[in-house]
Structure formats: C-alpha cells, structure tokens
Model the fold of this input.
Amino acid sequence: MENKFIIVALDDWEGLYYKNELISEGHEIGRSELIGLMKQHKVWDVDFKYLNKEGENIVQAYASMFNKYEEAKPYLE
Done:
C-alpha cells in the first residue's frame, strides 16, 4: 500500500486510513488534525473516497467505520 492517507466519507461521517488501518474517525477530519497526522506519519498525499448506500448502511448499523480499508473497498463508489 502506498504511503498516503485515504479519507472515506459518507453522509456525515469520515474515516482516515493509513496503511490499511483506521487511525481516526468522526463527523469531520479537521484540517489541523489532518496536518498533524501528515507530519507525524510523513505522508503528503491524501485520497478521498465515498461509500455507496450499502456501505453507509453497514457503518450506520455499527456506528463506526470499517476497521480496515480493505473491508471498506467493496463498498466504495
């Protein structure tokens, strides 16, 4: 996996993944939090992905993002 962050978003929730692991989630990954994590992990690239309706339903049912990015991938638009 490349040295980059991936933000997976749905209606009002975001999850930040690094090397397949969920490292932060919330209603919004704030700019200052993101910059701090980029400096900490020496990551300068960020991709944005969006969950489809099925993925949104799963996240809402569990009240949490997928723990691994690989688990979210089948539900990306």
In short: Residues 17 and 23 are 6 Å apart (CA to CA). The mean pLDDT is 95. The chain has one domain: 5-75. The beta strands are 5-10, 13-18, 21-26, 46-50.
